Amino acid sequence: MENNRNTNYALLAVVFVVGVGAGLIIYMLAAQSLSLGQYGMVGAKRDTMEDGASRQGRDVSRLLSYEQAKTQFDGRRIQFDNCASVPSQMTVKNGTQIMLDNRSADPHEIRVDGVLHRLWGYEFKLITLTNSNLPHTASFDCEAAGTVLYNTAEVLIQQ
Length: 159
Description:
Radius of gyration: 20 Å
Helix content: 25-40%
CATH topology of the largest domain: Immunoglobulin-like
CATH superfamily of the largest domain: Cupredoxins -  blue copper proteins
Strand order of the largest sheet: 1-2-9-6-3-4
Order of helices and strands: HEEHHEEEEEEEEE
Oligomer: single chain
Structural class: alpha+beta
Shape: elongated
Largest sheet: 6 strands, mixed
């Protein structure tokens, strides 16, 4: 009887570990892209490219100073200050890196077509905008201090 109990506990432990592992994999894959059904797949994730070169496996926003990123992404930067976005509209080619720039001391949550990007006070992040069905207008929603503003910015993604 004791042997069956130990076997059951071991089996339960294995099922739990496999379930947690599968859940983590699904979570990571879902965070990278979002299916929009008939409208295609949209991706907006942190980039790991350095100056458009080969993949370095590192987050570019951690390699660039704010001033370097501001210069490099001139014309491809959206600033958020208490969820007011500047500019509120932009057009880019598919696969273009842009800079999300929080100019407020308060943390912001930016959702690009539903994909979440958290920015701490005065933090910036680099993302790549892609879509399989072009042209596509990516919608940016912003949450700060518990207030959600929808469509604070829109980026038209073209070929």
